[in-house]
Amino acid sequence: MNITVQHEAKDRFRIDIRGHELFVDQPPPASDDTAATPTELFVASLASCAAFFGRRFLARHGLADAALTVSCDWDWAPDHSRVDRVSMRIEVPEPLTPELEAGLLRAVDRCTVKATIEARLEIVRGVAVTQRA
After folding, report:
1. What pTM did the predictor assign?
2. Which of 40, 48, 88, 98 is within CB 3.0–4.6 Å of 36 for a Cys-Cys bond?
3. Exposure pattern of 100-126 as b/e (b: 16+ CB <10 Å)?
């Protein structure tokens, strides 16, 4: 898998994911606030992964049409260097039995993004010089 991030202007970057384009930016005064920040995309990645796993669980239990919504709030670490806490709320259109609710939470806990964060992902870095035409 490959994702490419290319600088556009100020703190705005274009992200290419399998031909899909996304953008990130920063709010003023650093940049023009034309897109979500990388941190917001990070939390959105966690929320959307949880929504995916949650919807799949509900579908397996005959609730395929359940309008599942996942919303997140997050807090910065005191030094503002990282996200310190994410609070996730999973909204369903009708009450679930205690068994289904517990199963839904277990399914969401198996989210790939959450598992990666908890496993302390290894990040390998390198620098390459690009030949410009």
Report:
1. 0.88
2. 40
3. beebbeebbeebebbeeeeeeeeeeee
pLDDT (tens digit per residue) in 64-115: 677 899 999 999 999 999 999 999 999 998 899 999 999 999 999 999 999 9
Give residue limits of the domains in the chain: 1-35, 37-133
**What are the backbone dihedrals phi and psi of residue 18, each rounded to the nearest 5 degrees, phi first?**
50, 40
Please give the single-letter amino acid code of residue 85.
Answer: R
Amino acid at 126: G
C-alpha to C-alpha distances, 53 to 4, 46, 72, 96, 105, nearest whole angstrom: 26, 11, 16, 16, 10
